[in-house]
Write a structure and sequence with these properties.
It is built from 6 helices and 3 strands. With 144 residues, it is of the alpha+beta class. It has a domain of 92 residues: Arc Repressor Mutant, subunit A (Orthogonal Bundle), CATH 1.10.10. Strand 2 and strand 3 form a beta hairpin.
Length: 144
């Protein structure tokens, strides 16, 4: 049997390829689906919060958000009393794209877990959550 790290990377790659192919058919670029997903749940957030949730650098989030704004998927605005941060929210077009991506995510999960028992799915989620907790977000250069 393959090593754990290889199997995790392969599963991630296969799932990502499937999702990104579907996103591309919706005229979305890589990075945009997870931003849409977050904003659909959060409603509104600043760039730093979006970057942290999506586990990307703030500068990367900035370029993704710029393309999304140009495509009419999001709007950025200042809140009264806070001139330092721009807050991002979905437009109607962005909300429709987020809804479409929710369908894609659901379809991908159904495809990946076809034939699985509910108890096995819950066990997998529990184990993956535990595995993620073993690696708190940090700069890999800081690791010993």
């Amino acid at each position: 049997m393959e090593s754990l790290h290889y199997l995790l990377m392969k599963a991630h790659t296969n799932l990502s390829r499937y999702i990104l192919a579907q996103a591309s058919s919706l005229s979305l670029t890589p990075g945009q689906p997870k931003v849409l997903d977050f904003l659909q749940k959060a409603g509104e957030a600043d760039q730093k919060t979006i970057a942290a949730y999506c586990e990307i650098e703030p500068a990367t989030a900035g370029s993704i958000l710029l393309r999304m704004e140009q495509a009419g998927l999001i709007v950025r605005r200042q809140k009264p009393g806070n001139r330092r941060s721009l807050f991002v929210s979905l437009t109607d077009k962005g909300a429709a794209a987020a809804q479409a991506m929710t369908g894609v995510f659901h379809e991908a999960e159904e495809k990946a877990l076809a034939g699985w028992q509910e108890a096995d799915i819950q066990a997998l989620k529990t184990l993956l959550t535990r595995l993620c907790g073993a690696f708190p977000l940090s700069d890999p250069k800081e690791e010993p």
